[in-house]
Design goal:
The protein is of the alpha/beta class. About 35% of the residues lie in helices and about 20% in strands. The chain has 8 helices and 10 strands. A 6-stranded mixed β-sheet has the order 7-2-1-8-9-10. Strands 3-4 form a two-stranded antiparallel sheet. Strands 5-6 form a two-stranded antiparallel sheet. The radius of gyration is 18 Å and the shape is globular. The N and C termini lie close together (about 5 Å).
């Protein structure tokens, strides 16, 4: 089982696209890693959560989505947000309406507003800035780096292995979804230990009725504040 203990000579690496306001499981993967690499230079996917996520409301989870300027084949760090459409004020208004009764609304909303209203050259930079800020506030000390900062021309699983090696990683933390197409032996042959993270969400007090796990980290922060202890204490995950 993966754990938070740091062992000399072992460097755990997590890799993921920079998503918009991701859920707690995303931050758990960061927390378990010594290095976390943002895949900012891979192809943008409308099915991925690079420009949308869920908020919890009295009617259940609703999706908030960023309008973007994108052509087929663009990388995430080439996609720009269409700020002229006023999506920033709309998202902040949705956050305000649904979380103004939360215990930590004032502090978290102020921080989010400052982050979201800032100007960014592309959506990857915005998402990375938000995620990095939340990590810092939670006290997560994982080193965060961008895949675009490495000269790694390979693709697919080979690229994952090359990125792990680029930071001298010994262990790779993969999501369960990759288990269907990744060949564990390829990692073993390259001297990398492969772990599959099956995250079981923690349960915390939420507004608006029954608990929903698959919502943005905003929900946790609004209700629990920048407190990492419940996440660490309640974490349940298996290889």
């Amino acid at each position: 089982m993966l754990n938070l203990i740091k062992y000399e000579g072992i460097i755990k690496v997590g890799i993921h696209q920079p998503n918009y306001l991701p859920w707690i499981g995303y931050f758990t993967k960061i927390l378990l890693s010594d290095y976390f690499i943002f895949l900012d230079d891979v192809q943008f996917s409308n099915e991925g959560m690079h420009h949308w996520h869920y908020l919890k409301t009295p009617q259940g989870p609703i999706r908030i989505k960023i309008p973007i300027c994108q052509t087929l084949g663009d990388r995430i760090n080439e996609v720009k947000t269409r700020d002229e459409l006023g999506w920033k004020s709309k998202h902040l208004k949705s956050i305000e309406l649904n979380y103004k009764k939360a215990s930590h609304y004032q502090e978290v909303y102020r921080d989010l507003a400052e982050l979201i209203l800032h100007d960014y050259d592309n959506i990857a930079l915005m998402n990375i800035a938000i995620i990095s800020f939340i990590c810092a506030k939670l006290g997560i000390s994982t080193r965060l780096v961008n895949s675009s900062s490495f000269n790694v021309p390979t693709v697919g699983v080979e690229r994952i292995i090359d990125l792990v090696k680029a930071v001298n990683g010994t262990d790779y933390i993969s999501g369960m979804g990759a288990r269907s197409y990744q060949d564990d032996r390829v990692f073993q042959e390259k001297g990398i230990r492969l772990h599959y993270l099956h995250y079981i969400p923690i349960v915390y007090d939420q507004l608006w009725g029954p608990f929903h796990a698959n919502v943005s980290i905003i929900d946790y922060l609004m209700n629990c504040g920048y407190d990492l202890r419940p996440i660490v204490k309640g974490m349940s995950y298996t290889e």
